[in-house]
Every structure is written in structure tokens, then in C-alpha cells.
């Protein structure tokens, strides 16, 4: 089952960030196990462009549309047997300690 793992900052990081695993090691282990299909860091939010169409008019805005302190800083595409496995993968990511991880399964096209 495929999951999109959104890696986000958080305003309340773990009190002991030294407990977080090394990101290079995390990537190497997930790649070796075939759990991580792709992933990358994202540019800062001020590099974002928001695109909307309202009443047939194209609206392009610099930066993220939502005003929030938490931002998406990266992503990983995971292949896991089930949600429990995806949670274990996310739990071991360094940003689970310093930020937050959001897991989203891909929609079932037959549903």
C-alpha cells in the first residue's frame, strides 16, 4: 500500500532532539528495505506559489495560502504492507522528534 508521508515542522518539538535518528541513516535503511520509493526536501514556504481558479479567473499568489506556523518541509513516498508499518516508518523519522509526520494513503481508484 502506498502512503504519502508529509514531513512538517512543529511549534512544539521533543524536549530532547538529540534522541532523533540521523536522516542519512534513516533514508539508507528505508531505501534498502524498499519502503521509501522517493522523497526530497522542499524549498522554504516563501518560494511557494498558490494557484486557484475562481469564477473562471486564474488567481496566482506568492507564498503559501494558509497562514500557519507549521510548514511542510519535505515528503517521502512509502510502500508499506499496511498503516501499522507506515506508522513505524514515520515513527523512526527524525522529524517525528522535531516536527510532525502526516501519513496519507493513496486513494483507491476502484472505490
TrEMBL record:
Family: Belongs to the YciI family.
Lineage: Bacteria, Bacillati, Actinomycetota, Actinomycetes, Micromonosporales
Matching Gene3D superfamilies: Dimeric alpha+beta barrel
Span of domain YCII-related: 1-105
Family matches, as Pfam families: YCII
Protein name: Uncharacterized conserved protein
Amino acid at each position: 500500500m502506498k502512503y504519502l508521508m508529509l514531513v512538517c515542522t512543529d511549534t512544539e518539538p521533543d524536549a530532547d532532539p538529540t534522541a532523533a535518528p540521523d536522516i542519512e541513516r534513516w533514508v539508507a535503511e528505508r531505501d534498502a528495505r524498499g519502503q521509501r520509493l522517493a522523497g526530497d526536501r522542499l524549498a522554504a514556504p516563501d518560494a511557494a506559489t498558490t494557484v486557484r481558479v475562481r469564477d473562471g479567473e486564474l488567481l496566482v499568489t506568492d507564498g503559501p495560502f494558509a497562514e500557519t506556523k507549521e510548514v511542510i518541509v519535505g515528503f517521502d513516498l512509502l510502500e508499506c504492507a499496511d498503516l501499522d508499518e507506515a506508522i513505524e516508518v514515520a515513527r523512526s523519522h527524525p522529524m517525528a522528534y522535531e516536527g510532525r509526520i502526516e501519513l496519507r494513503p493513496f486513494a483507491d481508484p476502484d472505490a
